[in-house]
């Protein structure tokens, strides 16, 4: 498994230069490192911020599971989507509202065919809300299929 968490991970993260705003580090409650967040008041409605995870060493014809923590805190905070590089058009995962401010776990299967996925993009779309944030943390890539809960 590869630890791509932001404070001590080994992965290569890049801010997209062609989007509307950047993701920023935010301190965790327990003070153990940080996560990446987009506060609700950044930008204008429907503005987009993309954070890209570059994947260099994935083997062809194998499966991986991307596991991450996320939260959408606040009323009408916006959308969080995940895109795989070789399937640019549609998100492979999307969430647009949090029931509460709790962190939840997202899982995405990545199947490597002849074309390998060389990046995963976390995209935040600004909503109408003025409070709260969209956050992502604890991004881990494991070999094989995603485990059942």
TrEMBL record:
PANTHER family: APICAL ENDOSOMAL GLYCOPROTEIN PRECURSOR, MAM DOMAIN-CONTAINING PROTEIN. One of its GO terms (cellular component) is membrane. This is EGFL6 protein. SUPFAM superfamilies: Concanavalin A-like lectins/glucanases. Residues 2-148 form the MAM domain. It comes from Cinclus mexicanus (American dipper). It holds the Pfam family MAM. The lineage of its organism: Eukaryota, Metazoa, Chordata, Craniata, Vertebrata. InterPro entries: ConA-like_dom_sf (IPR013320), MAM_dom (IPR000998), MAM_domain-containing (IPR051560).
